[in-house]
Design brief:
This protein is α/β, with parallel strands linked by helices. The chain has three domains: 6-180, NAD(P)-binding Rossmann-like Domain (Rossmann fold, 3-Layer(aba) Sandwich); 189-297, N-(1-d-carboxylethyl)-l-norvaline Dehydrogenase, domain 2; 310-399, N-(1-d-carboxylethyl)-l-norvaline Dehydrogenase, domain 2 (Orthogonal Bundle). It is built from 17 helices and ten strands. α7 (189-205) runs antiparallel to α13 (309-325). Bound molecules: 3-hydroxybutanoyl-coenzyme A. 3-hydroxybutanoyl-coenzyme A (3HC) binds next to α2, α7, α9 and α14.
C-alpha cells in the first residue's frame, strides 16, 4: 500500500518533528493534539526546523511556505477519514495510547496503519486494544527527529508482513534508515542507551565525577553529546519513566539512579523547563548538587566511587550481547542502529557497541565487566553469550571472529 497522506497524534517535540519529516518528503500530514497550546507549539517546531533551513540557505522562503501548507493542525479528528497511516506520539502511558487507538479505530478507514512512536512500551499490548492488531506497528523516531537517521520498526505479535513492508517503504520515502527490531521493552536503542545513561547518573550521584567532567569524557570518547547534555535534551520525565519501565521489565540490572526521581519530583525536566542536570537561561545547577548531597547524607547512595568510561560503556556492550542472544536484531543492525540513532563513534570513527567490543577483545570486555561486578554489583555480570564466545576463542578482531567476522 502506498502512503499518500499521514497523521500525527500528539504535537510535542517528537510529534512536531515527525510532522516536519513527513512534509519534507512532500506528503500532507494532519497534526492533532487535545490542547491548543501544544498544537501551536508543535506547529512552531515544524516552522523553526524549516526556518533554520531557510536561514542556512538550504531552502527558499517560498518552498518553506509550500511545506508548511502541507500541515493541517487540528484539535478534532477532522481529516482522518482518508489517512493511510497515523503515528501516535502521545505521553508514554499505555492507557492513553490505547484510548487514542480506540478513537482512531472509529474515524479511520479499515486499511489505515496505526504506528506508535513509543520509546519502550509493548506494541502487542497497544494492538490488542484495537480492531486491527495486524495493522499496528512501532515506528520509533529519535530525537531530534529531523536530524537522526534511524527509525526502529517494531512488529507486534499480530502485525502482518504487509504492514511491516508498507512501513519499511514509507520510512525509506522519508529518507530515514529503518531497522526492524523484535519487540522487547525499550526495543534496541533505548535498551542499550538507558543503562549507559543510568550508569553516568549513578557516577554523578555517588560523587565519582561532576556532570561536566563526565560529559567531557564522553565527548572525548567520541559521543556527539555527553550523557547529561543528552538527557536534558530528551527530557528527564521521559528518562525517568522509561527507566522505571525497564526496571520493572528487566529487574535489578536496570534499577534507575535515585537522582532521576528527585529531579522529576522537583520539575527539573531538562532543557524544556530550563533546568535539568544543568541550568539554562540563567538558572543554576546548585539544586542538583544539594539533591546529591542529601542522597549521600541519607545513606541512600554509595559515595566516593570512581568514574571512567568503561563504567558507562561496559553495560551497553553487555546489553547488546543479550539482545543478540535474544535475536532482537542482527549484529550489523545493532551497530548501525546505535550509530544512526545516537551518533555513536569511537574517536570520531562510526562504531557500534559490538564492533567496539570486538576491537577491545571480548576477553578484555569480560575481565572489565567482572572487575566492575566485584566493585559495583550484579548489574555488571557478563552475559552468557560473552562468556561462551571467550571460551570458544572468539575474541574479536584479533582472532578474526567475535560478535562480527573479520577476513
Ligand atoms: N534540541 C533540538 N534540536 C537540536 C538540539 C537540541 N538540543 N541541538 C541541535 N539540534 C538540531 C539543530 O537545531 C540543527 O537543526 P537544523 O539542521 O534544523 O538547524 C541540528 O540539530 C544539527 O545541529 P548542529 O548543526 O548544532 O549539529 P551538532 O553537530 O551540534 O549535532 C545533534 C546536534 C545532531 C543533536 C548531535 O549532537 C547528536 O547526534 N546528538 C545525539 C542525539 C541522540 O543521541 N539522539 C537519540 C536519543 S535517544 C531517543 O531519542 C529515543 C527516545 O525514545 C528517548
Amino acid at each position: 500500500m502506498y502512503i499518500f497522506k499521514a497523521a500525527v497524534v500528539g504535537a510535542g517535540a517528537m510529534g512536531g518533528g515527525i510532522a516536519q519529516v513527513i512534509t519534507f518528503s512532500g506528503l500532507p500530514v494532519v497534526l492533532k493534539d487535545v490542547d491548543q497550546k501544544m498544537l501551536d507549539k508543535g506547529m512552531e517546531t515544524v516552522r523553526e526546523i524549516y526556518q533554520a533551513r531557510v536561514d542556512k540557505g538550504k531552502m527558499s522562503a517560498g518552498d518553506m511556505q509550500s511545506k508548511l501548507d502541507l500541515v493541517t493542525a487540528t484539535l478534532t479528528y477532522d481529516g482522518f477519514e482518508d489517512v493511510d497511516i497515523v503515528i501516535e506520539a502521545v505521553p508514554e502511558i499505555m492507557k492513553i495510547k490505547q484510548r487514542v487507538f480506540a478513537e482512531l479505530d472509529e474515524v479511520c478507514p479499515e486499511a489505515t496503519i496505526f504506528a506508535s512512536n513509543t520509546s519502550a512500551l509493548s506494541i502487542s499490548e497497544m494492538a490488542a486494544a484495537t480492531k486491527r492488531p495486524h495493522k499496528v506497528i512501532g515506528m520509533h523516531f529519535f530525537n531530534p527527529a529531523h536530524v537522526m537517521k534511524l527509525v526502529e520498526i517494531i512488529p507486534g505479535l499480530s502485525t502482518s508482513q504487509e504492514t511491516v513492508d508498507d512501513v519499511l517503504m514509507f520510512t525509506e520515502s522519508l529518507r530515514k534508515l529503518p531497522v526492524v527490531v523484535q519487540e522487547c521493552p525499550g526495543f534496541l536503542v533505548n535498551r542499550l542507551l538507558m543503562p549507559y545513561l543510568n550508569e553516568a547518573t549513578l557516577c554523578l550521584q555517588e560523587g565519582a565525577a561532576t556532570a561536566a567532567e563526565i560529559d567531557t569524557a564522553a565527548r572525548e570518547f567520541g559521543w556527539p553529546m555527553g550523557p547529561f547534555q543528552l538527557m536534558d535534551m530528551l527530557g528527564l520525565d521521559i528518562c525517568y519513566h522509561t527507566g522505571e519501565y525497564l526496571y520493572q521489565e528487566y529487574g535489578e540490572r536496570m534499577k534507575g539512579a535515585e537522582l532521576f526521581e528527585e529531579l522529576f519530583k522537583a520539575g527539573r525536566l531538562g532543557e524544556k523547563t530550563n533546568a535539568g542536570f544543568y541550568g539554562y537561561g540563567g538558572q543554576s545547577d546548585e539544586p542538583v548538587k544539594d539533591m546529591i548531597a542529601q542522597l549521600q547524607a541519607d545513606g541512600q547512595v554509595q559515595a566516593g566511587t570512581g568514574f571512567n568510561m568503561d563504567r558507562l560503556m561496559m553495560p551497553m556492550i553487555n546489553e547488546a550481547s543479550m539482545c543478540l542472544l535474544e535475536n532482537v536484531a542482527r549484529p550489523n543492525d545493532i551497530d548501525m542502529a546505535m550509530i544512526a540513532g545516537t551518533g555513536m563513534t569511537k574517536g570520531g570513527e562510526r562504531m557500534g557497541p559490538l564492533a567496539l567490543a570486538d576491537e577491545m577483545g571480548l576477553d578484555v570486555v569480560v575481565e572489565k565487566l567482572q572487575a566492575l561486578q566485584a566493585q559495583h554489583g550484579e548489574r555488571f555480570r557478563p552475559s552468557r553469550l560473552l562468556k561462551t564466545k571467550v571460551r570458544a576463542g572468539h575474541l574479536g578482531k584479533k582472532t578474526g571472529r567475535g560478535f562480527l567476522e573479520y577476513s
